[in-house]
Amino acid sequence: MRPTMLASCILCGLSALGCGTMIQPGEMGLKYTPLSDPGLEEQAHPEGFYFQWWWNGMVKYDVTMKTAEEPIEVLTVDDLHVPIRAAVSYRPDVDRLHDLHLKIGPTYYEKLIRPNFVSLLRTEFGNHKHNDLARQSPAIETKVLAQLKAALEGAPVQVTQITITHIDFDRGLTKAIAEKLIKQELLEQKRFEVDIAESDAEIARRMAKGQSDSIRIHSEGEAQAILTRAKAQAQAQEALAKTLTPAYLQFKAFDNPATRYYFVPMGKDGLPLIINAGEERPK
Predict the structure, then answer these.
(1) CB under 8 Å to 22, separation ≥6 — which residues?
(2) CB of 19 within 8 A of CB of 34?
(3) pLDDT, tens only, 83-115
(4) Both 135 and 72 in a single domain?
(5) CB-neighbour burial class of residue 68 (10 A; exposed 0-12, middle 13-18, buried 19+)
(6) Residue 157 near residue 110 (C-beta atoms within 8 A)
(7) Does a structural domain hold residue 247?
(8) What's the pLDDT tens digit per position in 240-268?
(9) Where does a domain end: 139, 169, 199?
(10) Do 53 and 72 fall into the same domain?
(11) Fewer CB within 10 Å, N- or C-terminus of the chain?
(12) What total number of domains does the chain contain?
């Protein structure tokens, strides 16, 4: 028989006779010797086989990370009862197993962690509205974990995570909230459409006003131009009128080589002389 097989057989035999204890992986143990002082050793033992007489013992603790899920009834700030399920991850402090066993014992979760965990969750959920729970769950988890660590400060245990695994929303209330949200969404859509329509109307008014102002300015410009031209023509005619005197016109008439002249005898009174052909001519 091989030496390793022989050693295994011997260990199994001694264990069967009550002369040893096997600590499995993930466990640590505290040796208990009632005939010595102190009876419980402070030093925790890791995994392995430990020989001992049948009247001695080994207190074993699972030191792996464990998760416990709890069903909890919470009351929201708007007075609605909501069933939830929440989980907490925990383990014993491996460096303080002796204190844990003497002060609390193997049922440390039920005696220490669970009461604080449930109480803090109920208190925190009481600060939130029913329809905000799903959205605010991560913040609730973070806050309750910090509060639980503070409540367990100094205790020989460790908590690492809190998870809200389920929130049992009331179906009727959830339906009513969903319908309300749909109506609010439709109302917001209508308000948006009204805002768009008002914006379009304002744009149209401003464009019309701009066109009207453009036409008015153009018309005023044309009227001003007409007035300016008329004033210039009047001033020109006035200047011509002052320049074209009778003497000047007579001068221009005589000055033109193409002009024919007709002389009409004038009397002393400035009237033309009219001679009656039937009368005798003066001698």
Answers:
(1) 11, 15, 48, 49, 50
(2) no
(3) 999 999 999 999 999 899 989 999 999 999 999
(4) yes
(5) middle
(6) no
(7) no
(8) 677 767 666 666 666 666 666 566 666 66
(9) 169
(10) no
(11) C
(12) 2
All residues at 6 or more sequence positions from 161 whose CB lies less than 8 Å from its CB, including other chains = 88, 89, 145
Q: Do 54 and 139 fall within a single domain?
A: no
94 lies in some domain: yes
- Do both 58 and 70 map to the same domain? no
Instruction: Give the pLDDT confidence of 205-253 residue by residue, as tens digits.
Output: 888 888 888 888 888 888 888 888 888 887 777 776 777 676 666 666 6
Please check whether residues 14 and 70 belong to one and the same domain: no
Distance CA 36, CA 38 (A): 6
Cα torsion 134, 139, 142, 146: sign: negative
Distance CA 40, CA 281 (A): 184
What pTM value is reported for the model? 0.55
Indicate if 23 and 57 belong to the same structural domain.
Answer: yes
β-sheet bridge partners, residue 164? 86
Query: Computed over its alpha carbons, how large is the radius of gyration of the chain?
Result: 59
Contact 122, 72 (CB under 8 A): yes
Structure tokens at 109: 């979760």
No. of H helices and E strands in the chain?
A: 7, 8
Whether 87 and 49 map to the same domain: the answer is no
Q: Which of 40, 43, 47 is nearest to 22 (CA)?
A: 47
Q: Among 169, 195, 226, where does a domain finish?
A: 169
Residue closest to 118 by CA, chosen among 144, 140, 139, 138 = 144
Is position 189 within any domain? no
Q: In whole angstroms, how far apart are CA 117 and each of 63, 90, 151?
A: 20, 11, 9
